[in-house]
Each structure stands twice: as C-alpha cells, then as structure tokens.
Amino acid sequence: MEKLNKKDHWENIYKTKELKDVSWYQPIPQTSLDYLKQFDVPFDAKIIDVGGGDSFFVDHLLELGYNDISVLDISEASLERAKERLGEKATKVKWIVADASNFHSSEKYDFWHDRAAFHFLTEEQEIENYIQNLNKSIAPNGIIVIGTFSEEGPIKCSGIEIKQYSMKTLTEKLEKYFKKIDCKLVNHTTPSNAIQNFVFCCFKKMTTII
Q: What are the tens digits of pLDDT across the range 113-129?
C-alpha cells in the first residue's frame, strides 16, 4: 500500500471542508483555557499551539491578551484560513507550516499546547522525534498540555488511523523528560453530535540539578 502523504491529505481536508463541519470544531476550547488559568500563564509567555490549524484557541489567546503566540500546522491552507478569520489580528501571531514530528525551533516555549496532533503519530520514530523536539523546545519549568483520543475514543480521524492513549500510557511516553502534573478524561461533542473521548495530560519540564 502506498504510504499516505500527510501534508497532501491535510491540505485537501482544509481546502474542501468548512471549519464548522470538521469533527474537531470547538468554538470555546474550555479545557485548554482552563489550563491557562490553572497555571496562571503570564501574558508575555511564549505559547505554541501545535497542530492548531484554524482552531479557535488562538482567537481566545489574543482576546485574553497574550502577545507571543505561535501556531503550527502541517497544512498551509489551515493557517491561511485562520489568518483570514483573524484579519489584522493575524499579524500578532507567528504562523509555522511544519510537521509536528520533525519541527525544530530556536525558540524556548513556556506553554506547549497540542490538542489532537500527537495521536496522529503512529510510528515509534515519529513519536520519539516529537518528544525529542519538544524537550529541546520547551523552556525550563515550561508547561506542556497534550490531548489525544483516549482508549474509549475513536480509532480514526479524517480517514487516518490514530494512536489511542490512556492516562498511564501517555504519561509513560513523556516521563523521561517531563513530570506529570495532571491527567483527565474529557468528552468532546462533534458537529454531528458524536461523542469523542479525549485524555488530556499536562506536564512540566524537569530541570537537571547539578
């Protein structure tokens, strides 16, 4: 079977489907916003939304007053849609077209947010690359929030197989470099009224004491 070209696949999704029609549509990303409050993330913190596409998380960040925001997605079309929606506000955001599994940055982020990008990485090398890049890109004491489909959630999204996680298995993937702070299960209702069960875990970068 021919290997899926992920970039082409996602470009096609974003060019052919309206935001309100995709399963991840979420006007108010309450779980993500709650984590900002929980950790009292300062307004000058460097924040990156990995796999953010044209989601509304960036809108809320801007409205709250955050001023150092990056949004990363493999699909350029998704980011162009977000820019169009935001209008002049889009100039306040750094837009990055990249694959989350091989993204490299010179920035050190204080808050790394990933709702439903990590679970698309199904090959162990991809997962390891992501974690290594995350470790290099997160600031000392930085906060990581990752949401994936749980073991009770879907096994596919947009025609692509994903990797399900439990609180335990997601923690085990990141515990080499990051300390788990919290995990919880969250139900997301899609536009078609289907229920998708997510596991959200947040971690803190472990600092090395010499």
A: 999 999 999 999 999 99
